[in-house]
Amino acid sequence: MSEDIPSNSYPLTPTSRNTHPRSRGLPHIKLSVNKNIQHGVKEVKGIIANYQEFVNRGNVVDLAVGVVIGAAFSSIVNSMVNDLLAPVIGLAAGSQLTEEFVVIRAAPDGQKDFTTRDLAKAAGSVTLDYGNFLQQVINFFLISLFVYLFVRLINVMTFRNESEKAKKDMVCQYCQKKVPVLAIRCSFCTTWLDKETQSKSKRYYPEVSLEEADPVAEA
Q1: What CATH topology corresponds to 59-167?
Q2: Are residues 97 and 83 in contact, defined by beta-carbon separation less than 8 angstroms?
Q3: What are phi and psi of 161, to 5 degrees?
Q4: Using one digit for the tens of pLDDT, what is the confidence trace for 44-79?
């Protein structure tokens, strides 16, 4: 007794997998997904390559080092001003330099005498903090002075290295190019720089004047 086969069923044949309505669009979907994945991977690789090129630039590294050193240098100068110079100035003035201020508007309760800026502002008064401004000016001049001295030190060291390097070189009297002092022959114009070798070369290859070398000039 045979079973009834539904009319909408398809026989399982090797060619029926691609002709089935449910599997007809799967290859196209897989192909589009693969293309999208490849495109995404290519974009990510491009971003990583551009980032590596950006980081490998000398300017970026120099800028990062300069920012770090500048922050550390600024903290050192601020500590010197706040911990060394400010107490001396405060001892002479009777109070810390940052706490020198003038009340230009009294508090709502009429009080004008305050020992610190924080107390004056907490009471609601308006103050002119000239002491803090003077300390910031001192910080600026000290930082600029130390930066100038630091740059000058670097320039002196660089000039010294260049001068020492210049002592190891000499200028060829024929082509005016720099060659090592111990060089026997110029690497640019191939002239013998050693006097003994130069005299031997002149003995075997005597110099010829332009008039002798150019028959047209004689005519």
Answers
A1: 1.10.1200
A2: no
A3: -65, -40
A4: 888 888 877 776 766 777 788 888 888 888 888 888
Sequence spans of domains, the chain: 16-56, 59-167, 170-218
Q: Which two tokens stand for residue 93?
A: 């003035």
Distance separating alpha carbons of residues 31 and 113, to the nearest angstrom = 82
Task: Tell me which residue has tokens 């004047």.
Answer: 209
pLDDT tens digits for range 111-131: 888 888 888 888 888 888 888
Write down the pTM of the prediction: 0.44
Give the integer Cα–Cα distance in Å for 13 and 55: 59
